[in-house]
């Protein structure tokens, strides 16, 4: 295999993941209802979700309407995901604790994505050109805390993700800011890299894992339930590397914790 010739676009990755994927079905618990958040900075946000045929539509505070995906990995925990204003927005809400976290991800323009890694390193910039903003929130009318805490509990773990019969990856959670991924089987077979990441604890054995890839600008957002061995989430990027339309496709996997070691950096 020539590794230099096997990087693929997010659009092609989405096509590879689409067949017989282990994704969750849509959840309609919010259909016809409003969802209101209070952010840690004192601002608020509210939206309502309608069902139009088989597609859910979110009505945003700025008046925009767009398609939305809503799923529930476990009872009381919801993942809400959509694209608006050239960014991807994901919301994780725990209706039991009343805590929520909203994240907004943006992809680079071609000019920024074309800056070589050495120049970004010399300038003291992150190697990835994908940006993400986290906003701690609580659900209006419930809960006392904002957002979810960052966690070190995944550090040192080696986890296998089976997204479909044809797509299998492994993750090594190295430290608080980096992890390594490796495609064992699938359209990226043999490829691997180490990328920037974030870990949040939602409940015992339930985590939010977010990563920002640098070679092909990509944002990944995954809820990881280690107790049940299941995930749900999405991958966001440009369909044709850094040009063209957005690709924001759903992902889900059956996961297996292969082993765990004490990380060198905690």
Automatic annotation (TrEMBL):
Pfam families listed in its UniProt record: MoaF, MoaF_C
InterPro entries: Calycin, MoaF_C, MoaF_N
Annotated ranges, domain Molybdenum cofactor biosynthesis protein F N-terminal: 6-108
Domain of life: Bacteria
Domain MoaF C-terminal: 150-259
Name assigned to this protein: Molybdenum cofactor biosynthesis protein F
Protein source organism: Acidocella aminolytica 101 = DSM 11237
């Amino acid at each position: 295999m020539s590794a230099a010739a096997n990087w693929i676009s997010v659009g092609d990755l989405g096509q590879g993941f689409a067949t017989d994927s282990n994704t969750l079905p849509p959840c309609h618990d919010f259909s016809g209802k409003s969802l209101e958040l209070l952010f840690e900075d004192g601002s608020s946000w509210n939206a309502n979700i309608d069902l139009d045929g088989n597609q859910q539509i979110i009505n945003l505070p700025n008046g925009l309407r767009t398609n939305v995906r809503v799923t529930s990995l476990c009872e009381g925990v919801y993942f809400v995901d959509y694209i608006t204003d050239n960014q991807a927005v994901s919301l994780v809400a725990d209706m039991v604790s009343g805590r929520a976290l909203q994240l907004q991800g943006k992809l680079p323009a071609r000019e920024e994505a074309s800056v070589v890694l050495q120049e970004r390193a010399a300038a003291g910039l992150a190697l990835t050109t994908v940006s993400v903003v986290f906003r701690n929130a609580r659900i209006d009318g419930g809960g006392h805390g904002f957002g979810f805490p960052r966690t070190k509990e995944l550090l040192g773990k080696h986890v296998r993700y089976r997204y479909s019969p044809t797509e299998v990856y492994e993750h090594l959670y190295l430290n608080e800011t980096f992890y390594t991924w490796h495609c064992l089987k699938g359209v990226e077979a043999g490829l691997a890299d180490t990328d920037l990441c974030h870990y949040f604890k939602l409940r015992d054995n339930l985590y939010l894992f977010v990563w920002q890839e640098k070679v092909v600008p990509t944002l990944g957002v995954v809820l990881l339930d280690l107790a049940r061995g299941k995930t749900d989430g999405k991958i966001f990027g440009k369909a044709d590397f850094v040009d063209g339309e957005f690709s924001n496709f759903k992902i889900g996997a059956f996961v297996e914790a292969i082993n765990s070691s004490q990380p060198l950096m905690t």
